[in-house]
Amino acid sequence: METDSEQSLGSGLKWRILCVDDEPDILTVLKAALSTKHEVVTALSGVEALKIIGACEPDFIICDIRMPKMDGYQTVETIRKQPAYSDIPVFFLTAERGKDAARKGFAAGCNLFLTKPFDPIRLLENIDYFTRESGHVVRPKGYSIEQIERMIEAVRRAPEAAEALSAPPPPAAAPRRPSPPPTAEPHASIPKLASELFAEYTNQRLKAEHSALEADRKAREQEYWKKKYAQIQAFIDRHMRD
User: Which residues have C-beta within 8 Å of that of residue 133, sequence separation ≥ 6?
Assistant: First the structure.
């Protein structure tokens, strides 16, 4: 049975991933690796990411933490406040290794915390696994990847003057056809079609899997920090005795 993610990819639609990092070399590697399966848009800072996100319409975000003006935590927190992107999958990919980095990352709204250096193939596998298990689907886009890249070039030529790129206009509504006259009232006891029952079952299963995935992530995070705090307390107690 195909998942929604597999059906989206099978239909010719690609995930559009927004990669945010202030190191151009990292963005080059990310784009080369991810473009084999996905559309990739790059931003050189959190500020630039927020300027282009409306026009970019990403399905997925990969973000660095150590960036000037606006770090990754602030960038993701701001993105999460936008209704259209409140539940978009976000990975932190960073060289930050402090004991509070992962905790702050999840608090800011990331779904997975990865550290550099990274294996591009492993990163692709993580993206595929997460999109498959979470039940997210590729959303239709108003601008092509080529149009987005030209817009970003214009933003980078005048970064201080550039405003946020506007989102694409909504597609024109198709003309409404007159409804045919009713024939007979359907009988209330007619059972649902098998396809409708299958769709309901699939949606319920995906929701259950997503809830289980989130619960497992939170439990593992709590257990991790519980052990860390116990180690810190043991270290303090040992040195107090000494």
Answer: 209, 210, 213
Closest CA to 163 of 48, 21, 20, 45: 48
Whether 15 contacts 60, CB under 8 Å:
yes
Find out whether 21 and 44 touch, Cβ atoms under 8 Å: yes
Structural class in CATH, domain 4-168: alpha beta
The 10s digit of each residue's pLDDT in 155-209 is 888 766 656 676 666 554 444 545 444 444 444 444 445 555 555 656 676 677 6
**So where are the chain's domains?**
4-168, 194-242
CA distance 64 to 114: 10
Q: Residue 24 and residue 29: Cα distance in Å, rounded?
A: 9
Q: How do residues 69-88 score in pLDDT, each as one tens digit?
A: 899 999 999 999 988 888 88
Query: Do 52 and 41 touch, CB atoms closer than 8 A?
Result: yes
Q: Per this entry, what is the length of the chain?
A: 242
Q: For residue 93, what is the DSSP state?
A: E
The total of other beta-carbon atoms located within 10 Å of residue 104's CB is: 17
